[in-house]
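REVIEWER CHECKLIST
Item 1: Sequence provided? yes
Item 2: Single chain? yes
Item 3: Sequence as submitted:
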Amino acid sequence: MSVPLPYYLGLSAVLFAIGVIGVLSRRNVIVVFMSVELMLNSVNLTLVAYSSFLGDITGQALVFFVIAVAAAEAAVGLAIVISLYRNKQTVNIDEMNILKW
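Item 4: Structure as written out by the authors:
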């Protein structure tokens, strides 16, 4: 038995919505980064579902590029968070105004 495509798309939409809510409602930078990663993973799920449904490998190949971008984003983002924490002693987004002019 195979799982129908709308189930994958529904799960992906729910994961993406949870990620958007996490980005918009949280003030902790680490939680915001985790929410962005959740949104990227929901897009990956959609790409793999459509790739499997259409019988084409292009979507699965694109997932590898998205994962590489997500890994680079996580590494750079974590380095920025560590640097800001050393200067401001907080990871709260509202208190980080060091990048303003």
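Item 5: Key structural point noted by reviewer: The mean pLDDT is 88.
Item 6: Recommendation: ____
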